[in-house]
Amino acid sequence: MLAATRRGKIKEILMKKKSVKVSELCEMFQVSDETIRRDLEELEKEGLIERNYGGGVLKKNVIVPPLLFRMEENIEEKEKIANKALDEIKEGMSIFLDAGSTTYQVARAINFKGVKNITVITNGLNIAAELASNTDISLLLTGGNLKNVNYSLVGPDTVEYIRRYNVDTAFLAAAGVSAEKGFTTSDIFEAEVKRSMLGSAKTAIVVVDSSKFGKDAMVSFCNIKDVDKVITSGDQNLDVIEDLKSHVNIVLV
């Protein structure tokens, strides 16, 4: 097993259990203590964990949950956000739908509400699958390298593909939102894709549930003022949301 693959699986375990032990990982992957300790060192450098004598613990303010877990979190909030996002989509428009659990709900809302005559460009395989049978829209899927953990396509090919287009609106997902770090995501490759969508869209809208406010994921992809609007729900972290309203147009649903 490649080191990158093993570390990805360790991340998945961390998302579920919040901590890992060297001895358990050695048995699971059939590798030496030294190999696992090197893996944990790399995860510590990424800012994901705090190492201890017997293993590592997921940092409290880091959010890197796999998509399958995120899909079930705050589902009612995400559906509200998605329905509100449809107000920003008009017939004849072209849009980016970034990979993510909330943007996936936007895709579902497009289908459910019968939005017609739009062009959707996405790097999310699950989003493309959701919209694939909709003959009322023009669907474009970027190329790139697949991130199995969240069904997103990333990398230089993805960025190059996105930069070919000039679209009306980009709907972006985020793993964290704070005044200090801006909008953040789980890794540098996803950040590059989001920046390319920002640069190729006339309007940028972040769709994110309120649990992400006041938290930072690993990589910042833009500042608070770099987007035109944030659509969110108001069930959590209202104080943080209110503080950010002076920097960006925030729509609460």
Q: Can you describe this structure?
A:
The longest helix is centred in the N-terminal third of the chain and has 15 residues, at 3-17. It contains 10 helices and 15 strands. Helix content is 38%, strand content 25%. The chain has helices at 3-17, 22-29, 33-45, 67-70, 75-85, 101-113, 125-131, 156-162, 188-199, 238-244; strands spanning 19-21, 49-52, 55-58, 94-97, 118-122, 137-141, 145-147, 152-154, 167-172, 176-178, 182-185, 201-207, 219-222, 229-232, 250-252. It is globular, with a radius of gyration of 19 Å. The strands form 4 sheets. The chain has a 7-stranded parallel sheet, with helices on both faces. The protein has a 3-stranded antiparallel sheet with strand order 1-3-2. It has a 3-stranded antiparallel sheet with strand order 10-11-13, covered by helices on one side. It has 253 residues and is an alpha/beta fold. The chain folds into 2 domains: 3-62, Orthogonal Bundle (Arc Repressor Mutant, subunit A); 69-252, 3-Layer(aba) Sandwich (Rossmann fold), CATH 3.40.50.
CATH top level class name of the largest domain: Alpha Beta
Task: Tell me the structural class.
Answer: alpha/beta
Mean pLDDT: 90
Beginning-to-end CA distance, first to last residue: 45 Å
Percentage of residues in helical conformation: 25-40%
The biggest beta sheet is recorded as: 7 strands, parallel
Number of strands: 15
Predict the CATH topology of the largest domain. Answer: Rossmann fold
Poorly predicted runs: none
| CATH-defined architecture of the largest domain | 3-Layer(aba) Sandwich
- What would you report as the Rg, rounded to the nearest angstrom? 19 Å
Task: Kindly give the count of domains.
Answer: 2
Spatial order of strands in the largest sheet:
6-5-4-9-12-14-15
Instruction: Give the ordered list of helices and strands.
Output: HEHHEEHHEHEHEEEHEEEHEEEHE
